[in-house]
């Protein structure tokens, strides 16, 4: 379990992994992101919605790209989305029916302490398998877990990935 | 030939009979699994100590423990040395052969078993500092060094230490009504909480080589003895917090002379420890209700922190009827104060912080304290103590009358809204803990949610009172959906011990706070809920309530049976998922003395044009409930003429059939849309089945449309 205060200081270069009891206010809820993948047969598109804890993503990106995002503040970096796109392209890889597919970055939304990302893969006639590689936040937060939930037709499949095991195969 | 066919026929008939008998298998019965079953099977039988109405009974008793302490803080070596006289009042009707004392610092001893119970793995990489701490540095020499345990006449007492608890083996049994006094001497090394975590410790500043101390769990103190657990018998493993008795404290704390200190209790010797200037400003603050007054300024503190006094001073406090004791001290502390009017009584709101926390703390800390006192007093009881302190302790932890809070601005003094709101949120939460569990003193070791959940709910009201646009991140029903709809193997019911759950924050803070929000907003309404909640708070102030007392009181005072709600929300990991399965449309036609209902089988929610124009619009709506939780069915009916109507069917609608129910809805106006729970009041985990006609737009498509439009 990580001591959330140390992470709040964006100056900190090293993120400490400690075994400590959680404290009374427990504001850091869980090192869990959720990636929802849904196939829309009418539009032949794969819709991907990712939600990530804003603080952690900001720390990771600030560290990674040596920037100061200041998300949701008046001083928020004008081109913050450039970095979001870059980061997602690097950390998230999808193969549909064993063929690597690029996704389109549709946009992002802030909701309290989460960021929602909307991505889309078009022109998919049918889906038999989806291979997901999800390395979001795992470099900076070794305890990070990335839950993938998918829906193709009537079938629901999910898989929980983490820093040691960042690739999974969903079969439909 | 005939014989063979006769034989075959006989065999055939015989076989068929056997088959028929096998098909007539005995049906299995079942026990009462109805969701509205009363909760008696889960709750302890009421008795004369805790009644069926949820109030303390005529024979309710609780122990009282007083402490007289002398504490020395050694700033050079970061140690605490103490001696105490403990006066234990056995107010129970039972004879006690031994007393149990808590030694919480032992959780940090070299031989502590806490690290042993944490699962861990090898990560791909960690910082050098972490590596050293885990694998090569000498372990921290924490834990209490008990140097003497004696009776009041200084004769040795027999004692047995079991990790974080110590049993005092009484020389003779302590009978009902008797008092036993004894003395303990000890010392321990204070931990660096910024590096090693903890609910107390010091933060080191390399500039000027100073420490901010936030000190708690610093003394051996009594465990609770009651009629629910007997003696507390669960160790302090580090997560589940404390069960403590009320009592009176007389505490003397010796610190370096240049320190500024805040602690539980009324300061008895202020002219000995504060300067004339500080005393004057403090007097002014006692009459200033609209802005914080600085008692020690940043300029003064910055000067003081540049050197170290070798002299000492002793702070003397008396605290009556508190369940614990804590203090914070540093030569870096700035102190500001503001008076707060609570029903014509003046309560002081104080903040202690070092310059690194300014201007964030200067702008918001004391104001947040004041708001908390006002809001919580409104919804529970008048704050009974004389002050509440918020300390820049860089953690989130609560003690009677004093709490340690997080948040610092950026190095240039700027701070984002997020930093600001998080600091205020936690401050409200920690100060709020004065009410739960410092005064409504539930057993935190057993039930984290009883103080954390209740506190997190009232916190929401205080946040909205502080700033009506406060970004609330925990407590709204839609915010708990992600947790509740997660992997079942990682979720536990609220009624599970805090030590044993994943997602501790959601389990013990978010979900119970959401439960109370739903009860107030949707099930009971503000008036009934507020009255019941206030009744509970006042029944159990300065006492020890259990979950049953809370559940019973909320029903007793409101006249609403909530057993179905407690059972589903607190005892299971079921989710809310209510939807519309089908809608049938009917119009009527007169036929002699009867009315015939004629179904309109056209597709969609609209009636076909050849509907009888004299007839009302009749809809037979089938609601279904894929989720296990019982909730009222909140329906918004939208009419073609642009008007709308809201109807709430009470949860009892599900009492016959837990999966499906049909209701007739009739109107002179034609419906255009039916929506279930449009304001997301019930934590519905799947809103794709909440509309009729069914909406096919999910969150993704709604976002895409928003971009286009």
Describe this protein's structure:
The complex is a heterodimer of chains A (172) and B (709). With 172 residues, chain A is an alpha+beta fold. Chain A is 17% helix and 40% strand. Chain A has three helices and ten strands, in the order H-E-E-H-H-E-E-E-E-E-E-E-E. In chain A, the strands form two sheets. Chain A has a six-stranded mixed β-sheet. Chain A is globular. Chain B has 709 residues and is of the alpha+beta class. In chain B, helix 8 (417-432) crosses helix 10.
How would the global form of chain A be characterised?
globular
Spatial strand order of the main sheet of chain B: 4-7-2-1-13-17-15
Count of structural domains of chain A: 1
Written as H for each helix and E for each strand, in order along the chain, the element string of chain A is HEEHHEEEEEEEE
**How many distinct helices of chain A?**
3
Shape of chain B: globular
What is the compact description of this entry?
Chain A has 172 residues and is α+β, with helices and mostly antiparallel strands. Helices cover 17% and strands 40% of the residues of chain A.
Please describe the structure with a list of short key phrases separated by commas or semicolons:
A: 172 residues; alpha+beta; six-stranded mixed β-sheet; 10 strands; 17% helix; globular; disordered N terminus; B: 709 residues; seven-stranded mixed β-sheet
What's the arrangement of secondary structure elements?
The complex is a heterodimer of chains A (172) and B (709).
Chain A: H1 4-8, E1 32-40, E2 45-53, H2 54-65, H3 80-91, E3 92-96, E4 99-101, E5 104-111, E6 114-121, E7 129-134, E8 145-152, E9 155-162, E10 167-171
Parallel strand pairs in A: 1-8
Antiparallel strand pairs in A: 1-2, 2-6, 3-4, 3-7, 5-6, 7-10, 8-9
Chain B: H1 2-23, E1 64-74, E2 79-89, E3 96-102, H2 128-136, E4 145-151, E5 158-162, E6 165-174, E7 179-189, H3 193-196, E8 201-205, E9 210-215, E10 221-222, E11 225-226, E12 230-231, E13 247-256, E14 260-263, E15 266-267, H4 270-273, H5 276-285, E16 293-296, H6 298-304, E17 312-322, E18 327-330, E19 334-342, E20 345-353, H7 360-379, E21 387-392, E22 397-399, E23 402-405, H8 417-432, H9 434-439, H10 448-466, H11 481-484, H12 504-523, H13 526-539, H14 547-556, H15 563-571, E24 579-591, E25 594-600, E26 617-624, E27 633-639, E28 644-649, E29 660-667, E30 671-676, E31 691-692, H16 699-708
Parallel strand pairs in B: 1-13, 20-21, 21-23
Antiparallel strand pairs in B: 1-2, 2-7, 3-6, 3-10, 4-7, 5-6, 8-9, 9-18, 11-12, 13-17, 14-18, 15-17, 16-19, 19-20, 22-23, 24-25, 24-26, 26-29, 27-28, 27-30, 30-31
Helix pairs in contact in B: 7-8, 7-10, 8-10, 10-12, 13-14
């Amino acid at each position: 379990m990580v001591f959330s205060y140390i992470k709040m200081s964006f100056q900190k270069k090293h993120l400490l992994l400690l075994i400590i009891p959680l404290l009374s206010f427990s504001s850091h809820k869980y090192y869990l992101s959720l990636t929802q993948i849904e196939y829309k047969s009418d539009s032949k598109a794969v819709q991907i919605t990712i939600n990530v804890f804003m603080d952690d993503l900001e720390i990771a990106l600030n560290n990674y790209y040596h920037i100061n995002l200041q998300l949701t503040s008046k001083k928020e970096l004008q081109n913050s989305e450039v970095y979001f796109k870059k980061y997602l392209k690097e950390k998230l890889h999808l193969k549909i029916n064993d063929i690597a597919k690029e996704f389109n970055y549709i946009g992002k939304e802030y909701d309290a302490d989460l960021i929602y990302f909307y991505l889309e893969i078009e022109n998919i006639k049918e889906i038999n398998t989806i291979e997901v590689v999800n390395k979001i936040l795992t470099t900076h937060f070794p305890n990070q877990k990335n839950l993938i939930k998918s829906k193709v037709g009537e079938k629901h499949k999910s898989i929980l990935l983490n820093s040691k095991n960042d690739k999974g195969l969903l079969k439909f | 030939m005939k014989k063979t066919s006769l034989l075959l026929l006989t065999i055939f008939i015989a076989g068929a009979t056997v088959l028929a008998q096998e098909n007539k298998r005995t049906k299995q019965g079942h026990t009462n699994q109805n969701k509205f079953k009363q909760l008696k099977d889960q709750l302890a039988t009421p008795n004369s100590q805790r009644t069926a109405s949820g109030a303390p009974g005529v024979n309710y008793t609780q122990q009282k423990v007083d402490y007289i302490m002398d504490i020395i803080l050694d700033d050079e070596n970061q140690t605490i040395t103490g001696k105490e006289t403990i006066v234990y009042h056995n107010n129970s009707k039972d004879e006690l052969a031994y007393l149990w004392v808590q030694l919480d610092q032992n959780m940090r001893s070299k031989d502590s078993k806490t690290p042993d119970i944490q699962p861990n793995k090898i990560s791909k990489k960690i910082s050098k500092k972490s590596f050293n701490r885990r694998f090569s540095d000498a372990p921290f020499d924490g834990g209490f060094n008990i140097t003497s345990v004696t009776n009041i006449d200084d004769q040795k007492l027999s004692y047995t230490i079991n990790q974080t608890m110590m049993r005092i083996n009484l020389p003779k049994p302590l009978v009902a009504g008797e008092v036993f006094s004894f003395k303990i001497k000890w010392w321990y090394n204070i931990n660096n909480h910024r590096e090693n975590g903890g609910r107390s410790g010091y933060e080191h500043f390399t500039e000027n080589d100073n420490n901010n101390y936030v000190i708690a769990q610093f003394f051996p103190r009594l465990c609770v003895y009651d009629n629910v657990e007997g003696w507390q018998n669960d160790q302090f493993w580090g997560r589940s917090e404390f069960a403590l008795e009320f009592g009176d404290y007389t505490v003397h704390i010796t610190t370096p002379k240049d320190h500024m200190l805040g602690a539980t209790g009324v300061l008895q010797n202020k002219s000995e420890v504060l300067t004339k200037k500080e005393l004057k400003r403090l007097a002014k603050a006692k009459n200033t209700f609209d802005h914080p007054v600085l008692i020690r300024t940043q300029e003064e503190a910055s000067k003081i922190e540049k050197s170290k006094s070798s002299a000492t001073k002793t702070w003397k406090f008396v605290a009556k009827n508190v369940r614990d004791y804590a203090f914070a001290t540093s030569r870096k502390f700035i102190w500001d104060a503001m008076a707060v009017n609570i029903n014509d009584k003046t309560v002081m709101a104080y903040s202690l912080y070092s310059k690194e926390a300014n201007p964030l703390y200067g702008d918001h800390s004391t104001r947040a304290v004041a708001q908390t006192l006002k809001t919580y007093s409104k919804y529970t009881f008048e704050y009974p103590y004389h002050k509440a302190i918020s300390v820049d302790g860089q953690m989130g932890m609560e003690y009677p009358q004093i709490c340690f809070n997080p948040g610092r601005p950026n190095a240039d003094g700027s701070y984002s809204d997020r930093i600001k709101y998080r600091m205020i949120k936690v401050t409200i939460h920690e100060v709020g803990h004065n009410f739960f569990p410092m005064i409504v003193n539930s057993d935190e070791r057993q039930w984290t949610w009883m103080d954390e959940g209740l506190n997190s709910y009232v916190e929401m009201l205080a946040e909205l009172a502080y700033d009506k646009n406060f970004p609330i991140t925990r407590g709204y029903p839609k915010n708990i959906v992600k947790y509740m709809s997660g992997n079942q193997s990682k979720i536990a019911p609220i009624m599970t011990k805090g030590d044993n759950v994943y997602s501790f924050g959601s389990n013990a803070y978010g979900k119970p706070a959401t439960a109370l929000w739903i009860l107030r907003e949707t099930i009971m309404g503000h008036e009934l809920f507020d009255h019941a909640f206030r009744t509970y708070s006042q029944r159990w102030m300065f006492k020890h309530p259990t979950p049953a007392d809370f559940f019973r009181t909320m029903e007793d005072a409101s006249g609403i049976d909530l057993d179905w709600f407690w059972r589903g929300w607190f005892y299971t990991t079921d989710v809310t998922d209510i939807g519309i399965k089908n809608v049938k449309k009917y119009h009527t036609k007169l036929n002699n003395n009867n009315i015939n209902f004629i179904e309109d089988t056209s597709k969609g929610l609209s009636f076909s044009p050849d509907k009888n124009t004299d007839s009302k619009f009749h809809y037979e709506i089938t609601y279904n409930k894929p989720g296990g939780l019982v909730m009222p069915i909140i329906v918004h009916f939208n009419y073609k003429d642009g008007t709308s109507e809201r109807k709430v069917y009470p949860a009892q609608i599900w009492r016959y059939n837990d999966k499906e129910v049909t209701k007739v809805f009739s109107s002179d106006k034609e419906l255009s849309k039916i929506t279930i729970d449009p304001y997301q009041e019930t934590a519905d985990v799947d809103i794709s089945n909440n509309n009729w006609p069914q909406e096919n737009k999910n969150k993704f498509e709604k976002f895409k449309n928003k971009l286009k439009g």
